[in-house]
């Protein structure tokens, strides 16, 4: 079992230079099974979470929804048992959990990404969907860091909205 906890230090860093920035406490809970001789060729997204197969042949199941607020560490056992039972029925195999990862997702207050200059020479991008949004955010943010004008694409997510 792998357990990680703690929010990013974004709120503390920004508060230290005058921003009124908060992070939402949103637990992410993911289960990985032992390897199985199964093929799941798509990511199965349901109202209860996502299920996919990784390159090692393990079933990866998200046990908490995207920005679900009411999840606590005590939900780990019941949620995992429920997901395993549903997967057993759906896939017709006996799923054996091997690892569980529990961590706080980096979700800025308000739920939207927070991107931009903190102080001269320090740039920040805080967002839950970092894997998906990184290619979209990284280039214009890097260009700003090199002296280019602000990209209008990033304007709605700028840090100035957190200025007191």
What report would you give on this structure?
- This protein is an alpha+beta fold.
- Helix content is 23%, strand content 27%.
- The protein contains three helices and ten strands.
- It has a six-stranded mixed beta sheet, with helices on one face.
Helix segment count? 3
Shape: elongated
Cα distance, first to last residue? 41 Å
In quaternary terms, these chains amount to single chain
The low-confidence runs, each spanning 5 or more residues with pLDDT under 50, are: 1-6
Q: What fraction, in percent, of the residue positions are helical? A: 10-25%
Structural class: alpha+beta
Largest sheet: 6 strands, mixed
Task: State the order of secondary-structure elements, H for helix, E for strand.
Answer: EHEEEEEHEEEEH
Radius of gyration: 19 Å
Would you report the number of β strands? Answer: 10
The percent range for strand residues is 25-35%
| Nearest-integer average pLDDT | 82
What is the topology, as strand order, of the major beta sheet? 1-7-3-6-5-4
